[in-house]
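Structure ticket #2291
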Amino acid sequence: MIALLFVFPALLLLGALVVYPVLFSVGRSFFDASGTRFVGGDNYAEMFRDPATLKAIRNTTIWVVVAPALLTGLGLILAVLVEKVRWATAFKLLLFMPMAVSFLAAGIIFRLAYDEDPDKGVLNAAVVSVHDAFKGTSTYPTARGRTGLLTQDRDGAYRTTASPGDPVTLPMVGVLPKDLPRDARPAAPAATRTSAPDELRGVVYLDFTPGGGGEQGKVDPEESGLPGMKVEAVRDGKTAASTTTAADGSFRFTGLDKGPYTVRLPESNFAPPYQGVSWLGPTLVTPAIIGAYLWIWTGFAMVLIGAGLSTLPRDALEAARMDGANEWQIFRRITVPLLAPVLTVVFVTLVINVMKVFDLVYIIAPGPVQEDATVLATQMWLVSFGGGNDQGLGSALGVLLLLLVIPAMVFNVRRFRNSQR
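Resolution: structure written out below.
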């Protein structure tokens, strides 16, 4: 009787916070959106007809298969490596620190980190930097040829026709004076240079005079050349010569045969800057959110597995080393089998956790791709309160989620009981 008296407050709280909501949700799942008409199993049938719910089930499956496996593997590797690090405690603390960050704060952090604008998103800033370091970037993405003086091809290149000995002027517009390279020089001197009979000279310049004035299509004294512009001399569809403009926008082809050439500014001169990866697009949004989840929970997996690792019998490891086993063989044949119970508990615990993931998905996924990233927990909320206002269908989703979690919970409880024995 005294024992029951002490247990009663806990049972009361358990009943009010767990048992009653579960029973109420099960009962509510058999009624329509208004909660007044009994519909039987219609809500459960509708779950598997709704494309959004099917997508949520698919995404939840991806989460359950990928996230716990990656976390358990990373935790195991880091736990083994940390043992060989001098500052092991500091390293563990550093990796465990994200666990102190709420899912709301972590979602905001990664929403910014995944931003598609390289000036805001740190990941895209790194991707763009690496891309530009290896492939370069166009100098004049906004430039375009002066209408009526240059012909634009379908691929975005500009061209005109000229023969060796003739001067060539390629007027461009659309470049702000402040965007000109620092080494840009006036184009007028270059436009007055004469050409030899086998030589084709010209100038690519900004056909704009600061302050107004000037004549279109003519190189005026205050107009600037466009350095670094790639120019090609093309005949019969083949590039006969190629060069890059100097600081004053001038270029020169030598050793050319007689006859007309197409002087061409390739489309690469005007390619828009590389903007990086669309991390939060429909294709990558789920892997991106899983990446944020890994950042938070890797420390948890590492610490739990590390605790199990510290209890391993050292004599077995030393005996294996004395028998000539290398570290990989010890890890694969001794460490992992002995850690199997701990790895199983960590894996199942993470499976239960990822089934309930809500905050990260709701915060990180932008509105247009929310449906592509949705999982059962977010779908349940969206259907019930996020605009669907169908708490009958939402309760059915909640019951489905409960049924999926129960086997993992039972398995974990049995593992704990067996370990205590």
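Closing remark: Residues 51-82 form the longest helix (32 residues).
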